[in-house]
């Protein structure tokens, strides 16, 4: 009688433990042998150089077209502050914020518009 109670309690626990152990072993095996081809895409583009940053247009805060909040620092661009306007989308930022951002990422922090490379090519002289 005591043995049947022991077996009735022990066998289900031993069976569940064995199933759990097999599950853990399968997880470990899969983690070791499953390789992703490209888990993280490498950064392919660098930011802008200081000479390229100097070519970007600046304006006063009062002349910004699409709002006065700087998307980098989330502070308002005051009307008397110097601001940098992103060519193409006309989003404006503090000069320091824009230069810091664009030296790392050549895209607009608001709309992710890529800065056109043609902007940095000097225009050809027109003979007419």
Automatic annotation (TrEMBL):
<dbReference type="GO" id="GO:0008270">
    <property type="term" value="F:zinc ion binding"/>
</dbReference>
<keyword id="KW-0479">Metal-binding</keyword>
<keyword id="KW-0812">Transmembrane</keyword>
<keyword id="KW-0863">Zinc-finger</keyword>
<keyword id="KW-0862">Zinc</keyword>
<protein>
    <recommendedName>
        <fullName>RING-type domain-containing protein</fullName>
    </recommendedName>
</protein>
<comment type="similarity">
    <text>Belongs to the RING-type zinc finger family. ATL subfamily.</text>
</comment>
<dbReference type="InterPro" id="IPR001841">
    <property type="entry name" value="Znf_RING"/>
</dbReference>
<dbReference type="GO" id="GO:0016020">
    <property type="term" value="C:membrane"/>
</dbReference>
<keyword id="KW-0472">Membrane</keyword>
<dbReference type="Pfam" id="PF13639">
    <property type="entry name" value="zf-RING_2"/>
</dbReference>
<dbReference type="InterPro" id="IPR013083">
    <property type="entry name" value="Znf_RING/FYVE/PHD"/>
</dbReference>
<feature type="domain" description="RING-type">
    <location>
        <begin position="70"/>
        <end position="112"/>
    </location>
</feature>
<keyword id="KW-1133">Transmembrane helix</keyword>
<feature type="transmembrane region" description="Helical">
    <location>
        <begin position="6"/>
        <end position="31"/>
    </location>
</feature>
